[in-house]
Amino acid sequence: MVRRRPTGTRQRGGRRTTGTRQGGQAAIEYVGVLTLLLVVALAVVQLGLAVYAAQQAGTAARAAARVASTDHQTGRAGAVARESMSGWLADGATVSTGAGAESVTVTVRVSVPALLPMFSFGSVEKSATMPSD
Fold this sequence. Notes:
By secondary structure, the chain is an alpha+beta fold. The chain has one domain (20-131). It has three helices and five strands; from the N terminus they run E-E-H-H-H-E-E-E. It has helices at residues 21-69, 77-83, 87-90; strands spanning 9-12, 15-18, 94-99, 103-111, 123-131. The strands form two sheets. A three-stranded antiparallel sheet has the order 3-4-5. Strands 1-2 form a two-stranded antiparallel sheet. A hairpin with a 2-residue loop joins strand 1 and strand 2. Helix 1 packs antiparallel against helix 2.
């Protein structure tokens, strides 16, 4: 009776050793899982950037509306809004002011920075209204 060796094993010096195919398969699986984890990590960081941009836009709108509502200083609203944000977000921000009879509304639009340049995430817009003095 002829005894057959299992596939993927070799006989060397009386010892049975496994082939390198299983080690290669593990490496391929590791690269696949690592790629998936990297994509998930980039998505989490991108979400954090979007939330941070929205928070900065809200802070800038409130600060600008507060200044614009005192003594009708609507001309300073844009400068105050940009000063109250992080410098790297303030460069692309647009500020619009609408003054009514009893209140002032400031709207700040900030573009969401993208980690990967091939994707665009648009912009975030926040408004704040304060009563006029």
